[in-house]
Amino acid sequence: MNKVARMRNNRKVWSIICALLIISLFIPTPYYIFQPGSVEELESKVTVEGGEKNAAGNLYLTTVFSLKASNVYYLAYGYFAPHSDLRKVDEVRGDMTDEEYSKLLDHMMTLSQQYALVAGLRAAGDQVDVQTSGIFVRSVLDTSYAAGKIKIGDVITQVDGHPLQESADFLDYLADKNPGDVVKLVYVRNGKEYTADIQLIELDNGVNTAGVGIVPEDQFKVETERKVDINAADIGGPSAGLMFSLEIFNQMTEVDITKGYEIAGTGTIDLDGNVGQIGGIREKITAVNRKGIDIFFCPADIFPHDSNEKDVLDEVKKEGYDVKVVPVKTLQEAVDYLEKLPPKQ
Q1: DSSP string spanning 123-149?
Q2: I need a surface site. Which of 4, 109, 188, 333 has the fewest CB within 10 A?
Q3: Which among 5-19, 93-107, 195-209 has the top mean pLDDT?
Q4: How many CA atoms lie within 13 A of 129 on its CB side?
């Protein structure tokens, strides 16, 4: 082979390699990359009517940075980068589309803020009226005849002409139904009302033998004695509930519970102030350590499958982080802990 032929072959080889490299940029992988996110102070995000914003320390929410590994290069980065975790797409969002997953995260954050508002105000002694107003569709089973008609994010308000205020009403109505029966649902999507006839499927949930095949969640409205503004439009998910409620509580009380400490935390909150498990706890404690936080509240492990407390304590020990981790079961436990602390010197 002469020199000119070899050069041509080399150019062909390099052309093929370049083409493969370019093509690989557009081949998605079935993974998300999770890394430590931001640690954001809450006093500027939460405003309670008549409340005080003169805390000596700060309360912070914590986030996890997530990125879809859209090609093999991102995947390689996620594999080798420190404090990164790769998770399969179906582990993160199941069979939901990106749009459905985004809508669910937005709903979960909105719900988290409402729960935090109720829990925080009640803990400070305010009266709060909570009224259920329909059923939020959290997911739709693939085997359901509602798939393709009812979508995640829809709010069901009636079944066969019967108004629905909460999930219990829905389950009670379906209790006497059989698989194959058809019900007429009225639901709201993006502010517009729709109807759909849905054939019931057989269930094996220990409650009803027949159902629509959705995972319902109560939709509710909250009426309070004072206005509370929470500005967290760029944050999704429910894990900031505990810290939102602590910030609301602190602005309403005469005693500053921060006492000069930098206090971060994570955990869902419900209407009664119970703290629930969250995802990404290892990434969050890493972000907290980088920020130089004094105290980190995390959900306590209560049930056998809970792992937040074990995981965060393991990460602190493994990495040698200098953060005081405080597991709590309720908002009141977090308040009690802070009230007993001496002021920071």
Answers
A1: HTT--EEEEEEEEEEEEE-TT-TTBTT
A2: 4
A3: 195-209
A4: 6
Q: How many Å apart are CA 340 and CA 343, to the nearest integer?
A: 9
Q: Which domains does the chain have, with CATH numbers?
A: 31-93+108-126+227-340 (3.30.230), 130-221 (2.30.42.10)
Closest C-alpha to 39, from 250, 235, 327, 221: 235
The whole model's pTM is what? 0.81
Confidence of residue 21 (pLDDT cuts 50, 70, 90): low
- Residue predicted with more confidence, 196 or 33: 196
Q: How far is CA 130 from the centre of its chain?
A: 21
Select, from the ranges 8-17, 105-114, 142-151, the one with the highest average predicted confidence (pLDDT). 142-151
Alpha helices by DSSP H, the chain = 3-24, 72-80, 89-93, 98-123, 167-174, 241-252, 281-291, 308-319, 331-340
Candidates 226, 219, 262; CA nearest to 243 is 262
Q: How high is the pLDDT of residue 97?
A: 79
Q: What's the pLDDT score for residue 9?
A: 60
| Amino acid identity at 226 | R
Q: Which of 104-108, 206-210, 338-342 shows the lowest mean pLDDT across its residues? A: 206-210
Give the C-alpha separation, 273 to 276, whole Å: 10
> Exposure of 334 by Cβ count < 10 A (0-12 exposed, 13-18 middle, 19+ buried)?
buried
DSSP for 25-79, written as a single string: TT---SEEEEEEEEEEESTTTEEETT-----SSEEEEEEEEEEE--SHHHHHHHH
